[in-house]
Design goal:
It is found in: Endomembrane system. This protein is mainly alpha-helical. The chain has helices at about 20-45, 50-95, 100-110, 115-140, 150-175, 180-205, 210-235.
Amino acid sequence: MDGTTTQDGRAPRRAWSVDAATLRAFVVDANDGIVATAGLLEGFAGAGASDSVLLLAASAATIAGSLSIGGARWAEEAAERDAQLVLAAEEAAQLAANPDDEIAELAAYWERKGLTPALALEVARQLSAKDALAAQLESEHGIASIPYVASTVRAGALAALSFLVGALVPLLVTTLVPGRIEAWAILAAVVLSLGLTSVVAWRSGHLSFPRVVTRALTVGVGTVLVGYVAGSFLL
């Protein structure tokens, strides 16, 4: 969403763009792909699984994980959009029935923001003249714009792609590295790839790099080690 709306409160169509929030979402889902697939493989490796079993497990985890996270993200975004559309319909009905009351509510909102009563009323009137529904949705519900259906599909597709990119790291290690050093190679690949995604997250959001990489490595390496130990004990 880009902060502008149409008369029904929805965001206008726009080309795909890569912003900080999109990059952070990509990093989170890619890390899930890395950690989940690597943790599963280390469990199988700890149990002494053969190369063919490891490759099958990695492939299944990659496909199932991508579809699962993509579907879940799409469902989440679609449900949020549906809820916003319900609020938009309710606000539209209230505007049609009592436009003066809605302007008064909007003016009260701007008064709480620190404007004088006279200025708040003038701002409310001007915003309502431009797009009354958008003004009410943003002030009462914090909705800057409502996405199109295509945006919810895009969010799901991006999540699935992100997971797939992350999961390909341990999958490629399983395919290319000899079995006798596979477990250590997966661990090394996890550390390197999580370090890389941490750099992306750090640069995209001006975050604290030590904190970002520490969190990522703690979860990632911890998951891989627990998976290996669990597989060893379950053998």
